[in-house]
Design goal:
Blueprint: H1 2-28, H2 32-48, H3 57-78, H4 86-103
Length: 107
């Protein structure tokens, strides 16, 4: 399970970081190479996600969606300096519960 968590975190950082870099390039007028780096990060996200240990593509991506939400709240807090409110935090907790339900081993 530790490997799965690590891969989810790595994929999330690549996806959110890649999207952030492209945002900086296109929306904030930053240098073009930030957009290129963002594109590369997004490609790496697609590759990293395939290393998951779970066999179902749909289940992996559904669970990753919950992890993505939590990481996005953290990114907004740490990088954009936008502190989450109680609704953000409760939403993140609910998402993590959903992830746990989806990935619980079945007999």
């Amino acid at each position: 399970m530790l490997k799965a968590v690590f891969i989810f975190l790595l994929a999330g950082i690549a996806e959110i970081g890649g999207g952030y870099l492209i945002w900086q390039w296109l929306r904030e007028g930053r240098a073009w190479y930030l957009g290129l780096a963002g594109g590369i990060a997004l490609v790496l996200y697609g590759i990293v996600a395939t290393f998951q240990v779970f066999s179902s593509f749909g289940r992996v991506y559904a669970a990753y969606g919950g992890v993505f939400i939590v990481l996005s709240v953290c990114w907004a807090w740490l990088v954009d300096k936008k502190a989450p409110d109680a609704y953000d935090l409760w939403g993140a907790v609910i998402c993590l519960i959903g992830v746990a339900v989806m990935l619980v081993p079945r007999t």
